[in-house]
């Protein structure tokens, strides 16, 4: 009897997400290929089946699609018209372009959330100074202005205090998205996995903290989140995943407010706020994404311990990550370090640290120490959690880091 041929998953994009999908594919026994933007991209360093090419070129995409059974993504920057053409030609793309467009275009996303009756901040399309003046009259100054497509990690975002800044940006981008500047208490995120058969699995809601517009930490579950609010968030992300016919994993980022929450953005792929699941969950977001795009039964999203924490390693002033990495492995063998194979530059995500346990403050302090020691930084305490001095038992050495309060993120 002929053997069963396992499918091949093709990932567009060779970044760290594709790199971290590869071990999950190996564990599932499926084949894995990447269309990478360069031969030394993070995923291309660890995967043997790599095609180097331009993901904005349709001929390149089509040629890659012919070599795999299903296409998925490391990022959301593939031109949507190319994805529509691939689907029309009979190739399997998951998530499909009609779902992915709501992660690609923030204006379309805002409209859809309004249609679904889900909590949006006040927003408007801005195509002229008059539009900006009308919005400012409604919500006041400052407000937030975003490019509808292409922004991430704080890029493509400005806080507008002077309407003259709008005119300058409209000269570059003809239509912008304006949003009220939300007076939030903290930022939250939630991940959901959904398969073509409609099966879903949701991980706990996490608290996130941003440093200069880049995610620095995620804590699961979000400390002190009322059960009723957690349920409302879970119901909202399930509503979005079903209404948009999402396939794969999806992240929903939110602003928590005293009265509830407001949706910020979506990502229809593995996401930074879900990296804790690699080590802190029965099924990681990476395995779940592959299960979903292959329409396999989804795995359990249950946490392995009471608290899981992810702290990003953000590049600092030195390029040597290996020697401090060795120190961290010896100093705290229970933390898990994930490096991306990237060149180091200030503020760039070059890896992350995961830790889990029963004591949130101690788990967080350990993960921070590891991440910041590898990066080579020494900063002040997190503004909303105990200081390292509060966490250190009497007589023990204080080895935890200091972390600065970030600039407020819109």
What does this protein structure show overall?
One of its GO terms (cellular component) is cytosol. Pathway: Purine metabolism; IMP biosynthesis via de novo pathway; 5-amino-1-(5-phospho-D-ribosyl)imidazole-4-carboxylate from 5-amino-1-(5-phospho-D-ribosyl)imidazole (N5-CAIR route): step 1/2. Homodimer. This is N5-carboxyaminoimidazole ribonucleotide synthase. It is a single chain. With 410 residues, the chain is of the alpha+beta class. It folds into three domains: 8-93, Rossmann fold, CATH 3.40.50; 122-180, ATP-grasp fold, A domain (Dna Ligase, domain 1, 2-Layer Sandwich), CATH 3.30.1490; 186-375, ATP-grasp fold, B domain (D-amino Acid Aminotransferase, Chain A, domain 1, 2-Layer Sandwich). The protein contains 13 helices and 17 strands. Strands 9, 10, 11, 12, 13, 14, 15, 16 and 17 form a nine-stranded antiparallel β-sheet that branches. Strands 3-2-1-4 form a four-stranded parallel β-sheet, with helices on both faces. It has a four-stranded antiparallel β-sheet with strand order 5-8-6-7, sandwiched between helices. The chain is globular. Residues 379-410 have low confidence and may be disordered.
What tags apply to this protein structure?
Rossmann fold; 4-stranded parallel beta sheet; 410 residues; Dna Ligase, domain 1; 3 domains; 24% strand; 13 helices; alpha+beta; disordered C terminus; 9-stranded antiparallel beta sheet; D-amino Acid Aminotransferase, Chain A, domain 1
